[in-house]
Amino acid sequence: MFAKKIISWYLKNKRDLPWRNTDNPYYIWLSEIILQQTRVQQGLPYYEKFVENFKTVEALAAANEGEVLRLWQGLGYYSRGRNLHKTAQVVVREYGGRFPDNFKDLQKLKGVGRYTAAAIASFAFNESVPAIDGNALRVLTRFFEIFDPIDSPSVQKNIFDIATDLMKNVDAGNYNQAVMELGATVCTPKNPNCEECPINIECKAFENKSVSQIPIKAKKTKVSQKFFQYFVFEHKGRYWLKKRADNEIWANMYDFYLVESENLDYHENLEKTIEEFNIEVESVKTYPVVNHILTHQKQQIAFTEVKCKSASTIGNGNWYTIEELDDLAKPKIIVDFIQNLKKG
DNA sequence: AAACCGGGGTT
DNA sequence: AACCCAGGTTT
Q1: Do A129 and A39 belong together in one domain?
Q2: Which nucleotide is nearest to A188 if distance is taken from CA to C1'?
């Protein structure tokens, strides 16, 4: 009954989203990678861009990684973009351009875990396997009034098993979409609209007025404090940027010269850096420190613009005009800074 | 400031 | 199973 009620609610109330009008695994995979850790509202324009630029997995595989990262710019968690490109190449080279057609094999692809594999397997191939994202997890824990912590792997496994039973003999794709859509639009984290919920009668948490307490997380996110300083070297309208290495954070993306420090002694960083690269300084401009709050880190980032008397050699970087910078994939903090630079 | 969209990857 | 993640946006 659970499944059928939810599906019928979904068919009447679903949002019309482009990836819901296809069973092409390439488009579904693309949308799911974009939507990892990302709201529909934010991911939608990126999906449109990618579909337009890369109509097939072959087209995506043939692109340069730089192009892919440039299109991904601003979306965050850039390893998704790199995995997207790598996986496209694997699918073309090793799978003959056809995505694996089942839950188990899909998880072999880089960037495709349990949730994403279940989503593709059910939407594209109608395999009966539950796609449990945060929305579905919230719906299920509330419906069964599960007070166990959802960040425990064993609890997640139990819920996966329960969900597997629930979806027997129903349309797997629509069922999975339905549960997630209910979580996204009705069974929301705060102020859920229980009055309009199609399954409120059978919802244990609703019955016992415990909706606002569920789901429960055992662990709190740890937040650490970090200090960074960017040196924006400028010479005759050109700016120095470096392509980051393959094995580090923001891999293969471009940014200014970066120093991480133990504290806020940004002056010392400046002295050291100028000395290290033997830079002839014309002038120094200090920008207000930016507080950058991330999920796991509080960052204080200082931008220091150094106008140089010559375009010296500074590590493995190059000097670019503002216009040339547009074509390089950069983290958003850099994009934003350049935006301000342009404004003056 | 914390929560949210969280899943995937590594150890 | 524990731990990590150089995100953007909303509450």
Answers
A1: yes
A2: B4
d(CA A192, C1' C6) / Å: 34
Q: Is residue A218 part of a domain?
A: no
Out of A172, A190, A213, pick the residue that ends a domain: A213
Asked if residue A221 has pLDDT above 80, the reply is no
Domain match, A248 and A161 both: no
State phi, psi for A249 to the nearest 5 degrees. Answer: -65, 150
Q: What is the pLDDT of residues A21-46, one digit of tens each?
A: 999 999 999 999 999 988 888 899 99
C1' nearest to CA of A155: which nucleotide? C1
The pLDDT value given to residue A87? 93
Q: Where are the beta strands (DSSP E) in chain A?
A: 224-235, 238-243, 254-255, 257-261, 281-286, 290-293, 297-308, 317-321
Question: Same domain for A209 and A234?
Answer: no
Mean pLDDT of chain A: 90
